[in-house]
## 1
Amino acid sequence: MDEKTKIFIVEDERQIARFLQIDLEKAGFQTAIEKNGKRAYERIIQEKYDLVLLDVMLPEMDGMEICRRVRELSDIPIIMLTARDEIKDKVEGLNLGADDYVTKPFSADEVLARIRRILKRRNEEPRKEENRLVVGNVILYPDRYEVKVKGEVVELTHKEFELLQYLVSNKPNVLSRDQILQRVWGYDFMGNTNVVDVYISYLRTKIEEKYDEKHIYTVRGVGYVIRD
């Protein structure tokens, strides 16, 4: 098993958590343990794990709530651990986004089999190509409103990002100031029409001057164009 595969055990019963840790590490996994629900949620978001074994009954925040919140931000595999054997509880966990569940008492072999099945399935799934736009060493990620230049994240405002995205999406076409104004600021914009020039200067300062990346060109009497 790849030693980098890390399992997060969220369980407030010390004996069960230790039992799982010993068997998982014997099988070649790395592990981490957390007994507090609220802290577990924070660690799942802040730290990097490959799969979570999540108990339902936890102090401060229960497993169902953790699963619900995590699914709003991440698709990390989650296996619920529960002493409850009612169908409605299993259904609730799966509906919240859990990948599987194990009912206590369980054997180490059962947990390992479920972990391996889920990780194998994840590894076999085709990776979704992230939507991105590229010009030179500038990469835009529209889905997360992020820009990187030479691997470094550049902080742009919402309007700065939309302006850059519009220019890059239309390269190598020349865009007039009116086209840019209507697309980025909207047809009913009542502000100063020089706003396009002002925001172009912001982009040049944050990207071109700082990283020595010249891509935005002025076409005199017309507007602007992006070139590689």
## 2
Amino acid sequence: MAFGIGANARKADATYVRGIQKKIACECWFTSTGKLIPLMVKLQDEDGQIQTIREITVHSQEKKMYAGVPSMEYDCTLAMEHKNIRVWLIYYQTENQWVLNYR
């Protein structure tokens, strides 16, 4: 029999991020309340060229923990080469690193 009042209960961590991750550079804005908003991303394509994407639509954002690492995950649509692509932008707070994740 286990005893407890739930004082140590917390949201379970995700063990890993599903999908394919690419490291990116991200220009972002911090509001006066501390909210982080991605404005533009740069990523390297298969040919080694740097692509700049300025058309970002953020659908939602969520604080997450991946293996104990705090992060902010943004569900977004990027407008690239006349196509809209659904991706997740993830900011790993302790590492100050952005990744683009697509599934």
## 3
Amino acid sequence: MWLGICNIHARYLEKGYLKSAMKRILNIVLLPLTLSLMALPAFAQDDTYDVFVPIAKYIGQGNAGKLSAWFADNLEITVISSSNDSSRNQARQIMKSFFDSYTPRSFEITHTAGRSNMKYALGALNAGGEMFMVTIFVSYSGSGYRIQQLKIERMR
């Protein structure tokens, strides 16, 4: 491509068409480059994706199966006063048991924070006639964000 551009430039210089050669080079090289740089903000919007939206949805629905898709292969899960380092399947069973005992009525994320590849959220869960504080820690790996720690405690 550059060889073709140089050949075009040389031909125009020989004929005294420097302005035309420069316009041609600008159209061939700079216009596509400018257009591609203008498209970058569209790709940067992926950084604004809120991983907690689907997670909160599944907690609010009491859907342990879909929630477990967000679990890391191994995670720390604390429900009321029982804490376990669990596999994804064990954590799914723990959450299913919790949702069976305390049917969720609503769940709302009240606070989020984090940096680069680690985030956390705090939320209020109304389930089974009680209120619970939910803490969720996620980290980013090559395949996306995964829940590393999930904690559900009774509010006092």
